[in-house]
Protein backbone atom coordinates (compact mmCIF):
# COMPACT_ATOMS: atom_id res chain seq x y z
CA UNK A 1 0.00 0.00 0.00
CA UNK A 2 1.13 3.56 -0.79
CA UNK A 3 0.30 6.71 1.15
CA UNK A 4 -1.85 7.68 -1.87
CA UNK A 5 -3.74 4.37 -2.06
CA UNK A 6 -6.90 5.55 -0.32
CA UNK A 7 -7.62 8.53 -2.60
CA UNK A 8 -9.65 6.47 -5.07
CA UNK A 9 -11.86 5.16 -2.26
CA UNK A 10 -12.72 8.64 -1.02
CA UNK A 11 -13.31 9.88 -4.57
CA UNK A 12 -15.82 7.05 -5.11
CA UNK A 13 -17.54 7.54 -1.74
CA UNK A 14 -17.93 11.32 -2.06
CA UNK A 15 -16.17 13.01 -4.96
CA UNK A 16 -17.49 16.42 -3.83
CA UNK A 17 -15.92 16.28 -0.35
CA UNK A 18 -13.20 18.94 0.02
CA UNK A 19 -9.69 17.47 0.23
CA UNK A 20 -7.55 20.65 0.24
CA UNK A 21 -8.50 24.24 0.97
CA UNK A 22 -6.04 27.12 0.51
CA UNK A 23 -6.38 30.88 0.24
CA UNK A 24 -6.71 30.54 -3.54
CA UNK A 25 -8.73 27.38 -4.12
CA UNK A 26 -10.67 24.38 -2.88
CA UNK A 27 -9.88 20.93 -4.30
CA UNK A 28 -12.47 18.15 -4.02
CA UNK A 29 -11.54 14.48 -3.62
CA UNK A 30 -12.66 13.66 -7.16
CA UNK A 31 -10.46 16.44 -8.51
CA UNK A 32 -7.62 15.50 -6.17
CA UNK A 33 -7.54 11.90 -7.39
CA UNK A 34 -7.45 13.06 -11.02
CA UNK A 35 -4.62 15.54 -10.34
CA UNK A 36 -2.54 12.91 -8.54
CA UNK A 37 -3.07 10.28 -11.27
CA UNK A 38 -2.23 12.72 -14.06
CA UNK A 39 0.87 13.88 -12.23
CA UNK A 40 1.96 10.28 -11.67
CA UNK A 41 1.61 9.66 -15.41
CA UNK A 42 3.98 12.57 -16.09
CA UNK A 43 6.57 11.13 -13.69
CA UNK A 44 6.31 7.74 -15.41
CA UNK A 45 7.22 9.42 -18.70
CA UNK A 46 10.40 10.99 -17.29
CA UNK A 47 13.84 9.42 -17.60
CA UNK A 48 14.36 7.35 -14.47
CA UNK A 49 17.67 6.50 -12.88
CA UNK A 50 17.27 7.26 -9.18
CA UNK A 51 13.49 7.93 -9.38
CA UNK A 52 13.95 11.02 -7.20
CA UNK A 53 12.57 14.53 -7.64
CA UNK A 54 13.71 17.60 -5.71
CA UNK A 55 10.89 20.02 -4.88
CA UNK A 56 11.63 23.69 -4.16
CA UNK A 57 8.13 25.09 -3.81
CA UNK A 58 6.07 27.13 -1.34
CA UNK A 59 3.14 25.68 0.58
CA UNK A 60 0.09 25.07 -1.54
CA UNK A 61 -1.88 22.62 -3.61
CA UNK A 62 0.85 22.36 -6.27
CA UNK A 63 3.45 21.15 -3.77
CA UNK A 64 1.11 18.45 -2.45
CA UNK A 65 0.03 17.46 -5.94
CA UNK A 66 3.61 16.94 -7.11
CA UNK A 67 4.61 15.16 -3.90
CA UNK A 68 1.60 12.82 -4.05
CA UNK A 69 1.98 12.28 -7.80
CA UNK A 70 5.60 11.29 -7.32
CA UNK A 71 4.55 8.88 -4.53
CA UNK A 72 1.93 7.31 -6.78
CA UNK A 73 4.55 6.82 -9.51
CA UNK A 74 7.01 5.15 -7.15
CA UNK A 75 9.34 8.16 -6.99
CA UNK A 76 10.87 9.69 -3.87
CA UNK A 77 10.56 13.42 -3.20
CA UNK A 78 13.46 15.45 -1.82
CA UNK A 79 11.90 18.38 0.03
CA UNK A 80 14.06 21.43 -0.59
CA UNK A 81 14.00 24.66 1.38
CA UNK A 82 13.62 27.81 -0.71
CA UNK A 83 15.62 29.65 1.99
CA UNK A 84 18.74 27.57 1.36
CA UNK A 85 21.72 29.40 -0.06
CA UNK A 86 23.27 28.32 -3.35
CA UNK A 87 25.97 26.24 -1.68
CA UNK A 88 23.44 24.46 0.52
CA UNK A 89 21.31 23.57 -2.49
CA UNK A 90 24.29 22.27 -4.42
CA UNK A 91 25.34 20.08 -1.49
CA UNK A 92 21.84 18.61 -1.08
CA UNK A 93 21.49 17.93 -4.81
CA UNK A 94 24.89 16.24 -4.86
CA UNK A 95 23.91 14.11 -1.84
CA UNK A 96 20.65 12.87 -3.34
CA UNK A 97 21.18 12.83 -7.15
CA UNK A 98 17.61 13.57 -8.30
CA UNK A 99 16.46 12.79 -11.83
CA UNK A 100 14.40 15.98 -11.89
CA UNK A 101 14.10 19.32 -10.08
CA UNK A 102 10.77 21.17 -9.85
CA UNK A 103 11.19 24.69 -8.50
CA UNK A 104 9.21 27.85 -7.94
CA UNK A 105 9.39 30.21 -10.91
CA UNK A 106 10.97 32.86 -8.64
CA UNK A 107 14.08 30.66 -8.51
CA UNK A 108 14.72 30.91 -12.24
CA UNK A 109 18.40 31.54 -12.74
CA UNK A 110 19.25 29.96 -9.42
CA UNK A 111 19.74 26.54 -10.99
CA UNK A 112 21.43 27.68 -14.21
CA UNK A 113 24.55 25.55 -13.69
CA UNK A 114 22.65 22.43 -12.61
CA UNK A 115 22.88 19.51 -15.04
CA UNK A 116 19.71 17.99 -13.63
CA UNK A 117 16.58 18.71 -15.76
CA UNK A 118 14.49 21.49 -14.23
CA UNK A 119 10.80 22.35 -14.49
CA UNK A 120 9.57 25.63 -13.02
CA UNK A 121 6.17 26.07 -11.40
CA UNK A 122 4.79 28.13 -14.31
CA UNK A 123 5.67 25.21 -16.65
CA UNK A 124 4.10 22.41 -14.61
CA UNK A 125 0.63 22.68 -16.16
CA UNK A 126 2.07 22.03 -19.63
CA UNK A 127 4.25 19.19 -18.25
CA UNK A 128 1.25 17.37 -16.80
CA UNK A 129 -0.66 15.69 -19.57
CA UNK A 130 -3.74 13.53 -19.81
CA UNK A 131 -4.31 10.73 -17.35
CA UNK A 132 -3.61 7.26 -18.70
CA UNK A 133 -2.98 3.76 -17.45
CA UNK A 134 0.39 3.75 -15.73
CA UNK A 135 2.73 0.79 -15.31
CA UNK A 136 2.65 -0.94 -11.92
CA UNK A 137 5.11 0.32 -9.33
CA UNK A 138 6.15 -1.32 -6.08
CA UNK A 139 4.17 -0.16 -3.07
CA UNK A 140 6.81 -0.14 -0.35
CA UNK A 141 9.52 1.93 -1.99
CA UNK A 142 11.24 5.08 -0.72
CA UNK A 143 8.93 8.06 -1.14
CA UNK A 144 10.39 10.79 1.07
CA UNK A 145 13.95 12.08 1.51
CA UNK A 146 14.66 14.63 4.21
CA UNK A 147 17.75 15.85 6.01
CA UNK A 148 18.84 15.25 9.57
CA UNK A 149 22.05 15.21 11.56
CA UNK A 150 21.82 11.58 12.67
CA UNK A 151 24.37 11.07 15.44
CA UNK A 152 27.23 13.29 14.24
CA UNK A 153 25.79 16.78 13.74
CA UNK A 154 26.53 16.79 9.99
CA UNK A 155 23.36 16.90 7.87
CA UNK A 156 22.59 13.63 6.11
CA UNK A 157 19.83 12.57 3.74
CA UNK A 158 17.45 10.05 5.28
CA UNK A 159 14.91 7.86 3.51
CA UNK A 160 11.41 6.83 4.53
CA UNK A 161 9.18 4.14 2.98
CA UNK A 162 5.42 4.12 2.45
CA UNK A 163 4.95 1.34 5.02
CA UNK A 164 6.64 3.31 7.80
CA UNK A 165 4.36 6.33 7.36
CA UNK A 166 1.20 4.28 6.93
CA UNK A 167 1.97 2.57 10.24
CA UNK A 168 2.34 6.03 11.82
CA UNK A 169 -1.02 7.08 10.37
CA UNK A 170 -2.55 4.48 12.70
CA UNK A 171 -1.17 6.50 15.62
CA UNK A 172 -3.30 9.41 14.42
CA UNK A 173 -6.37 7.20 14.70
CA UNK A 174 -5.61 5.17 17.83
CA UNK A 175 -3.62 7.61 19.97
CA UNK A 176 -4.78 11.00 18.70
CA UNK A 177 -8.39 10.08 17.89
CA UNK A 178 -8.44 11.40 14.31
CA UNK A 179 -11.06 10.28 11.75
CA UNK A 180 -12.12 10.95 8.16
CA UNK A 181 -14.51 13.64 9.46
CA UNK A 182 -11.75 15.91 10.70
CA UNK A 183 -10.87 19.34 9.34
CA UNK A 184 -7.15 19.85 9.92
CA UNK A 185 -5.24 23.13 9.77
CA UNK A 186 -1.64 22.99 8.48
CA UNK A 187 -0.11 26.41 9.30
CA UNK A 188 3.60 25.68 8.77
CA UNK A 189 6.01 25.01 5.92
CA UNK A 190 6.15 21.55 4.35
CA UNK A 191 9.92 21.74 4.71
CA UNK A 192 9.21 20.84 8.33
CA UNK A 193 8.17 17.18 8.23
CA UNK A 194 5.62 17.79 11.00
CA UNK A 195 3.42 19.79 8.64
CA UNK A 196 4.01 17.61 5.59
CA UNK A 197 3.11 14.58 7.69
CA UNK A 198 0.03 16.33 9.07
CA UNK A 199 -1.23 17.06 5.55
CA UNK A 200 -0.56 13.65 4.02
CA UNK A 201 -1.83 11.67 7.01
CA UNK A 202 -5.10 13.62 6.93
CA UNK A 203 -5.55 13.00 3.21
CA UNK A 204 -4.80 9.29 3.72
CA UNK A 205 -7.55 9.15 6.36
CA UNK A 206 -10.01 11.07 4.17
CA UNK A 207 -10.16 14.36 6.08
CA UNK A 208 -9.96 17.94 4.83
CA UNK A 209 -6.79 20.02 5.18
CA UNK A 210 -6.51 23.79 5.28
CA UNK A 211 -3.07 24.98 4.16
CA UNK A 212 -1.51 28.33 5.02
CA UNK A 213 1.03 29.62 2.51
CA UNK A 214 2.89 31.26 5.39
CA UNK A 215 2.31 31.28 9.13
CA UNK A 216 1.18 34.29 11.11
CA UNK A 217 -1.07 34.45 14.19
CA UNK A 218 -3.58 36.53 12.22
CA UNK A 219 -3.78 34.01 9.38
CA UNK A 220 -4.15 31.09 11.79
CA UNK A 221 -6.89 32.74 13.87
CA UNK A 222 -8.75 33.80 10.73
CA UNK A 223 -9.03 30.16 9.63
CA UNK A 224 -10.09 29.08 13.13
CA UNK A 225 -12.86 31.68 13.09
CA UNK A 226 -14.22 30.94 9.61
CA UNK A 227 -13.84 27.18 9.17
CA UNK A 228 -14.87 24.10 11.21
CA UNK A 229 -11.30 23.25 12.25
CA UNK A 230 -11.03 20.23 14.54
CA UNK A 231 -7.23 19.74 14.66
CA UNK A 232 -4.18 21.99 14.25
CA UNK A 233 -0.60 20.78 13.77
CA UNK A 234 1.78 23.25 15.42
CA UNK A 235 5.25 23.79 16.80
CA UNK A 236 5.55 25.54 20.20
CA UNK A 237 6.54 28.90 18.72
CA UNK A 238 3.16 29.07 16.98
CA UNK A 239 1.31 28.49 20.23
CA UNK A 240 3.53 31.08 21.90
CA UNK A 241 2.67 33.60 19.19
CA UNK A 242 -1.05 32.99 19.75
CA UNK A 243 -0.64 33.43 23.48
CA UNK A 244 1.26 36.71 23.04
CA UNK A 245 -1.60 37.98 20.88
CA UNK A 246 -3.89 37.01 23.79
CA UNK A 247 -6.12 35.23 21.31
CA UNK A 248 -8.91 33.22 22.92
CA UNK A 249 -11.01 30.44 21.43
CA UNK A 250 -13.80 28.44 23.05
CA UNK A 251 -14.28 25.92 20.23
CA UNK A 252 -13.41 22.24 20.68
CA UNK A 253 -10.03 22.12 18.94
CA UNK A 254 -7.14 19.68 19.26
CA UNK A 255 -3.59 21.02 19.00
CA UNK A 256 -0.91 18.50 18.00
CA UNK A 257 2.62 19.71 18.67
CA UNK A 258 6.21 18.56 18.33
CA UNK A 259 9.66 20.10 17.96
CA UNK A 260 10.32 21.24 21.53
CA UNK A 261 8.84 21.04 24.99
CA UNK A 262 6.16 23.48 26.08
CA UNK A 263 7.10 25.43 29.18
CA UNK A 264 4.81 24.73 32.18
CA UNK A 265 3.66 28.36 32.39
CA UNK A 266 2.83 28.24 28.68
CA UNK A 267 0.61 25.21 29.27
CA UNK A 268 -1.30 27.04 31.99
CA UNK A 269 -1.94 29.98 29.65
CA UNK A 270 -3.00 27.63 26.86
CA UNK A 271 -5.69 26.08 29.03
CA UNK A 272 -6.91 29.56 30.01
CA UNK A 273 -7.07 30.92 26.46
CA UNK A 274 -8.31 27.68 24.88
CA UNK A 275 -10.52 26.27 27.68
CA UNK A 276 -12.20 23.61 25.53
CA UNK A 277 -9.13 22.55 23.55
CA UNK A 278 -7.19 19.30 23.79
CA UNK A 279 -3.40 19.34 23.62
CA UNK A 280 -1.18 16.52 22.37
CA UNK A 281 2.58 16.93 22.61
CA UNK A 282 4.48 14.14 20.88
CA UNK A 283 8.13 13.19 20.84
CA UNK A 284 9.90 11.54 17.93
CA UNK A 285 12.63 11.95 15.34
CA UNK A 286 13.10 11.76 11.59
CA UNK A 287 14.74 8.35 11.94
CA UNK A 288 12.37 6.84 14.51
CA UNK A 289 9.06 8.59 13.77
CA UNK A 290 6.51 8.66 16.59
CA UNK A 291 7.89 7.55 19.96
CA UNK A 292 5.71 8.93 22.76
CA UNK A 293 2.82 11.30 23.39
CA UNK A 294 1.78 13.49 26.32
CA UNK A 295 -1.99 13.82 26.24
CA UNK A 296 -4.29 16.60 27.34
CA UNK A 297 -5.01 15.46 30.89
CA UNK A 298 -1.32 14.73 31.53
CA UNK A 299 0.08 18.14 30.55
CA UNK A 300 0.22 19.59 34.06
CA UNK A 301 0.93 16.53 36.23
CA UNK A 302 3.69 15.21 33.94
CA UNK A 303 4.79 18.53 32.46
CA UNK A 304 8.49 17.60 32.31
CA UNK A 305 7.83 14.30 30.54
CA UNK A 306 7.46 13.57 26.82
CA UNK A 307 4.67 11.16 27.66
CA UNK A 308 4.22 7.44 27.21
CA UNK A 309 4.98 5.32 24.15
CA UNK A 310 2.47 5.17 21.31
CA UNK A 311 0.38 2.01 21.13
CA UNK A 312 2.64 0.40 18.50
CA UNK A 313 6.03 1.40 19.98
CA UNK A 314 8.29 -0.46 22.39
CA UNK A 315 10.87 1.49 24.40
CA UNK A 316 14.07 0.28 26.06
CA UNK A 317 16.52 2.42 28.03
CA UNK A 318 20.01 0.94 28.14
CA UNK A 319 23.40 1.57 29.67
CA UNK A 320 26.67 1.87 27.75
CA UNK A 321 27.00 -1.94 27.61
CA UNK A 322 23.58 -2.32 26.03
CA UNK A 323 21.91 -3.68 29.15
CA UNK A 324 18.46 -2.37 30.04
CA UNK A 325 18.57 -0.12 33.09
CA UNK A 326 16.18 -0.21 36.03
CA UNK A 327 13.13 2.02 36.27
CA UNK A 328 14.14 5.59 37.05
CA UNK A 329 17.74 5.17 35.91
CA UNK A 330 19.12 7.09 32.96
CA UNK A 331 20.48 5.57 29.78
CA UNK A 332 20.24 5.72 26.00
CA UNK A 333 16.73 5.45 24.58
CA UNK A 334 16.09 2.62 22.10
CA UNK A 335 12.89 2.16 20.12
CA UNK A 336 11.26 -0.80 18.38
CA UNK A 337 8.41 -0.23 15.92
CA UNK A 338 7.35 -0.57 12.28
CA UNK A 339 7.79 3.17 11.76
CA UNK A 340 11.59 3.32 11.52
CA UNK A 341 13.39 4.96 8.62
CA UNK A 342 15.15 2.96 5.88
CA UNK A 343 18.54 4.58 6.47
CA UNK A 344 20.79 7.39 5.31
CA UNK A 345 21.73 7.73 1.65
CA UNK A 346 25.29 6.48 1.07
CA UNK A 347 25.95 6.37 4.83
CA UNK A 348 25.99 2.67 5.74
CA UNK A 349 28.06 3.05 8.88
CA UNK A 350 25.94 5.92 10.18
CA UNK A 351 22.80 3.90 9.41
CA UNK A 352 24.17 0.96 11.41
CA UNK A 353 24.68 3.25 14.39
CA UNK A 354 20.94 3.98 14.38
CA UNK A 355 19.42 0.69 13.20
CA UNK A 356 20.62 -2.07 15.51
CA UNK A 357 18.72 -5.25 14.73
CA UNK A 358 15.04 -4.79 15.55
CA UNK A 359 15.86 -1.74 17.64
CA UNK A 360 16.99 1.79 16.80
CA UNK A 361 18.38 4.82 18.60
CA UNK A 362 19.37 8.42 17.95
CA UNK A 363 21.28 8.44 21.23
CA UNK A 364 18.91 10.57 23.27
CA UNK A 365 19.56 10.15 26.99
CA UNK A 366 16.39 9.36 28.94
CA UNK A 367 14.81 7.73 31.96
CA UNK A 368 11.35 6.23 32.51
CA UNK A 369 9.22 6.03 35.64
CA UNK A 370 7.05 3.15 36.85
CA UNK A 371 4.02 4.46 34.97
CA UNK A 372 5.91 4.49 31.68
CA UNK A 373 6.39 8.25 31.36
CA UNK A 374 9.62 9.09 29.54
CA UNK A 375 11.89 11.99 30.48
CA UNK A 376 14.50 13.17 27.95
CA UNK A 377 17.66 14.38 29.68
CA UNK A 378 19.76 15.46 26.72
CA UNK A 379 20.84 14.84 23.17
CA UNK A 380 24.16 13.27 22.45
CA UNK A 381 24.30 14.86 19.02
CA UNK A 382 23.77 18.43 20.37
CA UNK A 383 21.14 19.20 17.76
CA UNK A 384 19.42 22.57 18.27
CA UNK A 385 15.63 22.86 18.01
CA UNK A 386 15.01 26.46 16.97
CA UNK A 387 11.27 27.15 16.65
CA UNK A 388 10.65 23.49 15.82
CA UNK A 389 13.35 23.46 13.10
CA UNK A 390 16.37 21.18 13.41
CA UNK A 391 19.60 23.18 13.26
CA UNK A 392 22.97 21.47 13.30
CA UNK A 393 25.80 23.24 15.17
CA UNK A 394 28.52 21.45 13.22
CA UNK A 395 27.34 22.97 9.95
CA UNK A 396 27.45 26.52 11.35
CA UNK A 397 30.81 25.90 13.04
CA UNK A 398 32.27 24.68 9.75
CA UNK A 399 31.09 27.86 8.04
CA UNK A 400 32.47 30.19 10.73
CA UNK A 401 35.84 28.47 11.07
CA UNK A 402 36.56 29.36 7.45
CA UNK A 403 36.53 33.09 8.25
CA UNK A 404 39.89 34.86 8.55
CA UNK A 405 40.89 35.42 12.15
CA UNK A 406 38.66 32.71 13.66
CA UNK A 407 40.79 30.32 15.72
CA UNK A 408 38.12 28.27 17.46
CA UNK A 409 34.34 28.32 17.48
CA UNK A 410 31.55 26.58 19.36
CA UNK A 411 27.89 26.79 18.33
CA UNK A 412 25.16 25.45 20.57
CA UNK A 413 21.58 26.01 21.63
CA UNK A 414 20.55 27.77 24.81
CA UNK A 415 17.08 27.76 26.33
CA UNK A 416 14.71 30.43 25.10
CA UNK A 417 11.13 30.96 26.24
CA UNK A 418 9.83 31.82 22.78
CA UNK A 419 11.93 29.73 20.37
CA UNK A 420 12.56 26.72 22.60
CA UNK A 421 16.26 27.09 21.89
CA UNK A 422 18.19 29.88 20.21
CA UNK A 423 21.55 29.58 18.48
CA UNK A 424 24.59 30.93 20.26
CA UNK A 425 28.12 31.24 18.85
CA UNK A 426 31.30 31.60 20.92
CA UNK A 427 34.34 32.79 18.99
CA UNK A 428 38.05 32.89 19.81
CA UNK A 429 40.24 34.88 17.48
CA UNK A 430 41.15 38.26 16.01
CA UNK A 431 37.91 38.97 14.18
CA UNK A 432 34.96 41.31 14.66
CA UNK A 433 31.53 39.92 15.43
CA UNK A 434 30.03 42.38 12.94
CA UNK A 435 32.02 40.83 10.10
CA UNK A 436 30.95 37.33 11.16
CA UNK A 437 27.29 38.34 11.25
CA UNK A 438 27.61 39.85 7.78
CA UNK A 439 29.31 36.67 6.55
CA UNK A 440 26.46 34.54 7.89
CA UNK A 441 23.87 36.72 6.17
CA UNK A 442 25.41 35.78 2.83
CA UNK A 443 26.22 32.12 3.47
CA UNK A 444 23.60 30.66 5.83
CA UNK A 445 19.82 30.39 5.80
CA UNK A 446 18.25 32.98 8.08
CA UNK A 447 17.18 30.46 10.73
CA UNK A 448 20.76 29.15 11.03
CA UNK A 449 22.30 32.52 11.89
CA UNK A 450 23.27 32.73 15.58
CA UNK A 451 21.14 35.05 17.71
CA UNK A 452 23.69 35.26 20.52
CA UNK A 453 27.36 36.10 19.90
CA UNK A 454 30.24 36.04 22.36
CA UNK A 455 33.99 36.57 21.93
CA UNK A 456 36.17 34.86 24.51
CA UNK A 457 39.87 34.81 25.31
CA UNK A 458 40.08 31.10 26.09
CA UNK A 459 37.77 28.10 25.86
CA UNK A 460 37.43 25.60 28.70
CA UNK A 461 38.77 22.16 27.78
CA UNK A 462 38.04 18.60 28.86
CA UNK A 463 40.76 16.26 30.07
CA UNK A 464 40.78 14.83 26.58
CA UNK A 465 41.81 18.17 25.14
CA UNK A 466 38.45 18.99 23.56
CA UNK A 467 36.42 22.14 24.13
CA UNK A 468 33.96 21.52 26.97
CA UNK A 469 30.64 22.35 25.36
CA UNK A 470 28.94 21.80 28.70
CA UNK A 471 30.99 24.53 30.35
CA UNK A 472 30.45 26.90 27.43
CA UNK A 473 26.71 26.32 27.74
CA UNK A 474 26.86 27.18 31.45
CA UNK A 475 28.64 30.46 30.66
CA UNK A 476 26.03 31.43 28.09
CA UNK A 477 23.06 30.51 30.23
CA UNK A 478 24.53 32.42 33.18
CA UNK A 479 24.91 35.50 30.95
CA UNK A 480 21.27 35.13 29.89
CA UNK A 481 19.97 35.34 33.47
Tell me which CATH architecture of the largest domain applies here. Answer: 3-Layer(aba) Sandwich
Largest sheet: 9 strands, mixed
Approximate strand percentage: 25-35%
Helical element count?
14
Tell me roughly what share of residues is in helical segments: 25-40%
Please compute the radius of gyration using only Cα atoms.
Answer: 23 Å
Name of the level-1 CATH class of the largest domain = Alpha Beta
What is the straight-line distance between the termini?
53 Å
Low-confidence stretches: none
Number of domains: 2
Overall average pLDDT:
90
For the secondary structure, the number of strands is 27
CATH superfamily of the largest domain: ANL, N-terminal domain
Question: What does this molecule look like?
Answer:
With about 475 residues, the protein is α/β, with parallel strands linked by helices. The protein has two domains: about 5-380, ANL, N-terminal domain (Rossmann fold, 3-Layer(aba) Sandwich); about 385-480, ANL, C-terminal domain (GMP Synthetase, Chain A, domain 3), CATH 3.30.300. Helices cover about 30% and strands about 25% of the residues. It contains 14 helices and 27 strands. Strands 2-1-10-9-11-12-13-14-15 form a nine-stranded mixed sheet, with helices on both faces. The mean pLDDT is about 90.
Short synopsis of the structure:
By secondary structure, this protein is α/β, with parallel strands linked by helices. 30% of the residues lie in helices and 26% in strands. The chain has a 9-stranded mixed β-sheet with strand order 2-1-10-9-11-12-13-14-15, sandwiched between helices. Strands 6-5-3-4-7-8-18 form a 7-stranded mixed β-sheet, with helices on both faces.
Amino acid sequence: MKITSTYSTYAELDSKRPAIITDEESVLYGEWLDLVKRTATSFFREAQETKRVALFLPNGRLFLQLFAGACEAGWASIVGDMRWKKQEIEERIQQTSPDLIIADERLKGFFQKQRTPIIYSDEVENWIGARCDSPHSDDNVPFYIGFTSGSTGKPKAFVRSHASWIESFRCNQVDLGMTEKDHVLIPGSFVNSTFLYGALSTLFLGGTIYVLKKFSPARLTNVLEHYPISHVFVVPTMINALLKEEYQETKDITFISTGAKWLPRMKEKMHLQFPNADFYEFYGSSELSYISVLKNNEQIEYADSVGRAFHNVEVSIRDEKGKEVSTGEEGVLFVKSNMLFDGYIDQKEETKKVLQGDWATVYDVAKMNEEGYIHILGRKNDMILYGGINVYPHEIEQALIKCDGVEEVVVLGINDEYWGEKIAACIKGNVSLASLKNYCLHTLSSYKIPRVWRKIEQFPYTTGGKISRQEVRKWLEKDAL
